[in-house]
């Protein structure tokens, strides 16, 4: 495969992992990140991938946004959802007129990027592999997970096929879809469970496995699925998460079966806790809740769909972020009780 030239904007867990694999496969990768210490470490010593899957170091140029110069046909955007607009504005001068931004993020970030660079210059992605930024110059690649690429208008284009062929060098199971919105809403339905997990201390598998919390998973899932349905989107499943099992009216047995499958997927993973939990407990910073979960309740409100549990979850995450509530497993019981 001919070497591609890619600018990875946001060289943390996701950008660092994907960029390192593509660099190792021979592509011309440049990293950009606002974390000056991380950028300096990559530029000086290379980017180190650690963890149970593979350990290797790649050499690649790295810059802060203020220092990067040049124009790229492809930019992979890998920042947290709340940084999407600022990052899109900063990267726009570096995007070729006929180029595109690939969003490797959770949430509905494609719309935000499109608002800055234009809808025809955005490609969507849904990702569920696990990775963690560890230290300047080091990212842990913790576990494989679904990777799906799609044009936001559902067309199967040449650029999508070319991107998919490259992505196979990182994720051999990556697929293309004509329904990226279905996957993004699927991830929101799964992601909302991870936001609830972040209220407590148990890891993803142990938290999902708490039998008494099944009604909580069902009510959160039902709200997300009802909002998606109002938008005409049918969420897609992956890695044990079956959206149909959490639709309003779905049986308790179906939800329980999906929870068992999600627990089985997560149990062996070196990434035991979600990025949301890590933002609060380890990185001591705010989460993506306002950019990812609050919009679900807001869209619901526009369509006359009440999302009381989602809204309570948003409020409780705020309280934990601000230190008004300890990060404790009992929070999930309180969220469920209402
Ligand atoms: N980590 C995971 O396992 C998974 C993450 N995701 C999603 O992927 C996206 C990226 O997450 P993740 O890689 O974990 O996050 P990280 O925080 O590890 O990486 C993001 C990097 O971007 C930097 N950054 C912030 N703002 C800008 C900016 N304006 N321009 C350039 N760089 C910037 C951050 O610096 P600083 O830290 O200083 O802010 C950080 O180094 C999120 O939407 C997340 O939900 C999806 C699936 C799995
Ligand atoms: C846990 C994970 C990797 C989804 O499985 C995630 O998306 C996150 O950390 O927010």
What are the secondary-structure elements, in order, as H or E?
EHEHEEEEHEHEEEEHEHHHHHHHHH
Label the CATH architecture of the largest domain.
3-Layer(aba) Sandwich
Main structural class: alpha/beta
Radius of gyration, in angstroms, nearest whole number: 19 Å
Total domain count: 2
What characteristic shape results from the CA principal axes?
globular
List the ions, cofactors and other small molecules found in this model: NADPH dihydro-nicotinamide-adenine-dinucleotide phosphate, ketopantoate
Q: Which fold name fills CATH's third level, the topology of the largest domain?
A: Rossmann fold
Strand order of the largest sheet: 5-2-1-6-7-8-11-12
Estimate what percentage of residues fall within beta strands. Answer: 15-25%
Number of strands: 12
EC number: 1.1.1.169
Function: Catalyzes the NADPH-dependent reduction of ketopantoate into pantoic acid.
Enzyme class: oxidoreductase
Protein name: 2-dehydropantoate 2-reductase
Question: Can you put this structure into words, describing what you see?
Answer:
With 338 residues, the protein is α/β, with parallel strands linked by helices. It has two domains: 5-178, NAD(P)-binding Rossmann-like Domain (Rossmann fold, 3-Layer(aba) Sandwich); 182-337, N-(1-d-carboxylethyl)-l-norvaline Dehydrogenase, domain 2 (Orthogonal Bundle). It contains 14 helices and twelve strands. An eight-stranded mixed β-sheet has the order 5-2-1-6-7-8-11-12, sandwiched between helices. Strands 4-3-10-9 form a four-stranded mixed β-sheet. Strand 11, helix 5 and strand 12 (175-176) form a beta-alpha-beta unit. Helix 3 (84-91) packs parallel to helix 4 (109-117), helix 8 packs across helix 9 and helix 8 packs across helix 12. The radius of gyration is 19 Å and the shape is globular. Ketopantoate binds next to helix 10.
């Amino acid at each position: 495969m001919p070497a591609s030239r890619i600018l990875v904007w946001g060289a943390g867990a996701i950008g660092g992992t994907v960029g390192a694999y593509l660099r190792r496969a021979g592509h011309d990768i440049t990293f950009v990140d606002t974390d000056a210490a991380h950028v300096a470490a990559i530029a000086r010593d290379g980017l180190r991938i650690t963890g149970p899957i593979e350990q290797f170091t790649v050499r690649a140029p790295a810059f802060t946004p203020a220092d990067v110069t040049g124009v790229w046909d492809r930019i992979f955007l890998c920042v947290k959802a709340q940084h999407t607009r600022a990052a899109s504005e900063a990267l726009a001068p570096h995007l070729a007129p006929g180029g595109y931004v690939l969003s490797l993020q959770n949430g509905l970030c494609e719309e935000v990027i499109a608002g800055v660079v234009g809808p025809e210059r955005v490609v969507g992605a849904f990702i569920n592999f696990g990775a963690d930024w560890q230290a300047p110059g080091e990212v842990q690649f913790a576990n494989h997970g679904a990777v799906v690429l799609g044009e936001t208008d559902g067309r199967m284009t040449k650029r999508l096929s070319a991107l998919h062929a490259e992505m196979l060098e990182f994720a051999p199971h990556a697929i293309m879809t004509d329904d990226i919105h279905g996957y993004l809403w699927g991830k929101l339905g799964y992601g909302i469970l991870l936001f609830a997990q972040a209220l407590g201390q148990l890891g993803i598998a142990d938290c999902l496995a708490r039998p008494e919390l099944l009604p909580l998973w069902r009510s959160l899932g039902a709200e997300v699925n009802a909002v998606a349905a109002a938008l005409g989107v049918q969420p897609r499943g992956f890695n044990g998460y079956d959206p149909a099992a959490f639709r309003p009216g779905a049986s308790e047995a179906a939800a329980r079966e999906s929870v068992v499958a999600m627990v089985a997927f997560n149990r062996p993973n070196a990434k035991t806790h979600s990025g949301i939990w890590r933002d609060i407990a380890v990185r001591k910073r705010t989460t993506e809740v306002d950019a990812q979960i609050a919009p679900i309740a807001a869209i619901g409100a526009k369509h006359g769909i009440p999302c009381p549990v989602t809204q309570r979850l948003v409020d409780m995450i705020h309280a934990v972020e601000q230190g008004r509530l300890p990060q404790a497993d009992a929070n999930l019981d309180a969220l469920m009780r209402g």
